[in-house]
């Protein structure tokens, strides 16, 4: 009886020791834009003005929106793929048993295009053309 209990105590101490100093993976994403100072929004959450670095918890597809006055708004998707050591079964070893910290860093760069000025006369002509289309299609 005592030997069985002693085994559980050793097991509990071992698990407690592992829990005190486990390794972990810190995931970082840096977003750069040209020109700098653009507002960066990932999955509808504003993370700051470029260049900006943020942490993330999961890999996968991210919706990216970048805005800056005088430039066209950029709407796109980007994927973050997990490295081999952050997939099953390696992730257990790295996140629980690995003695140190791993920093997993990604960098995205986006070039912004200047906003095209709107010609007032062209805009009026486009509006009239759309109105005419509605009038023709309306019974």
Summary, kept brief:
This protein has three helices and seven strands. It has 139 residues and is α+β, with helices and mostly antiparallel strands. β2 (39-42) and β3 form a beta hairpin.
Main sheet overview:
4 strands, antiparallel
* Estimated structural class: alpha+beta
Q: How many domain units?
A: 1
What is the H-and-E element order? HEEEEEEHEH
Number of helices: 3
- Helix proportion of residues, in percent? 25-40%
Query: Roughly how many Å is the radius of gyration?
Result: 27 Å
C-alpha geometry:
elongated
Could you explain how this protein is built, in words?
This protein has 3 helices and 7 strands. The protein has helices spanning 2-20, 90-97, 120-137; strands at 24-34, 39-42, 45-49, 52-55, 60-67, 74-80, 101-111. The termini are far apart. Helix content is 32%, strand content 36%. The strands form 2 sheets. The protein has a 4-stranded antiparallel sheet, with no helix packed on it. It has a 3-stranded mixed sheet with strand order 4-1-7. Residues 15-22 have low confidence and may be disordered. With 139 residues, the protein is α+β, with helices and mostly antiparallel strands. The protein has one domain (2-137).
Key structural traits:
single chain, 139 residues, alpha+beta, four-stranded antiparallel beta sheet, three-stranded mixed beta sheet
């Amino acid at each position: 009886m005592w030997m069985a209990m002693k085994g559980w105590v050793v097991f509990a101490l071992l698990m407690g020791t592992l829990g005190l100093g486990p390794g972990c993976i810190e995931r970082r994403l840096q977003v750069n834009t040209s020109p700098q100072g653009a507002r960066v929004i990932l999955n509808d959450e504003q993370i700051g003005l470029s260049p900006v670095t943020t942490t993330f918890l999961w890999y996968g597809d991210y919706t990216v929106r970048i805005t800056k006055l005088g430039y066209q708004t950029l709407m796109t998707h980007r994927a973050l793929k997990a490295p081999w050591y952050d997939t099953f079964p390696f992730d257990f070893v790295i996140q629980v048993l690995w003695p140190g910290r791993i920093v997993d860093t990604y960098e995205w760069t986006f070039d912004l295009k200047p906003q095209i000025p709107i010609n007032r006369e062209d805009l009026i002509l486009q509006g009239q053309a759309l109105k005419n289309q509605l009038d023709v299609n309306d019974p």
